[in-house]
Design goal:
alpha+beta, 25 helices, 4 domains, 568 residues, Arc Repressor Mutant, subunit A
Amino acid sequence: MAASFEFAQFRVDAGRRALTRGGSEIALSRKAFDTLVVLLEEGGRLVPKDVLIQRVWPDSFVEENSLNQSISALRKVLGPKLIETVSGRGYRFVAPIVVHAAESRETLRTLAVLPLRNLGAEEGDWLGIGIADTLITRLSNIHDLIVRPTSAVLRLGDRDAVETGRALSVDAVLEGSIRKAGDRLRATVQLVSVATGAPIWARTFDERFTEIFAVEDAISERVAEALTSRLSGEERSQLTRRTTENSEAYRLYLNGRWYAERLTRASLTKALESLQQAVDLDPHYALGYAGLAYHFLQCADLTVPSLEAMNRAEEAAQRALAIDDSLVDAHVAIASVRTFRDWDAPASAREFERALAIDPRSSSARQLYGWCLTLAGDFDPALRELREAVEIDPFASSHALYLAPTLYFARRYDEALAETRALIARDPNFWLTHVIAGRTLEAMGDLAGAIACYEESRRVDDSVPESLGDLGRALGRAGRSHSILDELRRYDHVPAFVEANVHLGHGDRDRTFELLNAAIDERSWYVTWYRIDPHLDELRGDARFAQLLQRAGVPPALTPPARAPHRS
């Protein structure tokens, strides 16, 4: 069915072909009305003159003068400022528009939010992705609405709204664009029915950038109203909940999280700069501190010694929890520190229980809990947690970074390789996936294949030392000479475990054990691999290995937290 539109003091009912103001109907010629509907359907986008003529007069040949007459008639009724003339090109409707559709709201239960397309030159893609991620977080709090995560949308690449909606099996898609120029932000968004391709609701916002929160509030509320008529008071408050009132701190947080995901030396440096500036601007920004904690967890033994990184992650997470004890990301960070630095499995489990009690649908909490179970050698419960994370967020590419290594550590090599190759097919430019594939092939005895994977990882990015240790081990096992130890000297920090792998490949057990013990002294998070790493299997019959595990205080098996219901 046709939609209806509201703008200024007017309402247009396209089905009844009626224009009203304050309840009183206003006369318009048929073609002037059709011209207005086309402009409204385009939601603030420029409509070229030839397109307007084709859509309003599809079966007739008319001069441009006919279009000019319709525009003139509309301006007499609506006022001169609502329709903008773009010289030599066409027309654009410039007032904020609200679109109402005739579809039943009760039939729309699943939603995807696309990153807003950035039409300006001042900001990167992170702004549109960050706004979309905020909307997803808010709308996910509605009890009868399933919202696909940002990762699901990003995995599909650049597709139109309907195609994306069908790929993600959702009822509706929210799409739009933003343009930031100076201190102004213009956002144009619309909610599109996947079944019909028609807009359910649309609106244009033109605000100062400092009002970005008001824009997000309004979008969240309007989308929620279009999708469901039953919102509790708590759900309404969650729609407009803000973690900071400082728009610049918010911008820096979005930027920092974007870079932290890239896991390169350059990206992690940029992430730290942005996140630190965010909390400097707003010292009470809990989510900003949680972002810092996440950043330092990512840095451990890549760009920062593990102990230093874990200490700073815990400090940031504790700052976040002191401000907001309900922040899941902060509890997950503390739980990770308990595993990676303290090697304290029971304490880690308790913190994960807190996180999952707050949000049992947190895919990241399930995912990292599964990984910590993996490190304790509890592979079956680990795989259950990781697969439950996949059920909650079936499209997140990060799952393979935990699921594939768990299968590898569990010696289920064929499954691990299948998971990793699928991830590489989706994103061949992430260095770590090639490393995981190489470790799996090496454990399967395919040294040539493993070496090729490690070399590809270095080609993609060699700013961190981890893959060099694996390459040195594989080259040594293949009897090939190399200069890996010399190459490692160019890094500021080389974990003892990374160097140990090189000596392991050459069969130098004495030096290998020296370095594995040094990793314990470093409080390296790699120590959590000692119990389970297949590449250390050749050492397990040596009495020194049992002493090594005793020094490391290998944790007992963990007990998964009680199951909490979630939506898939």
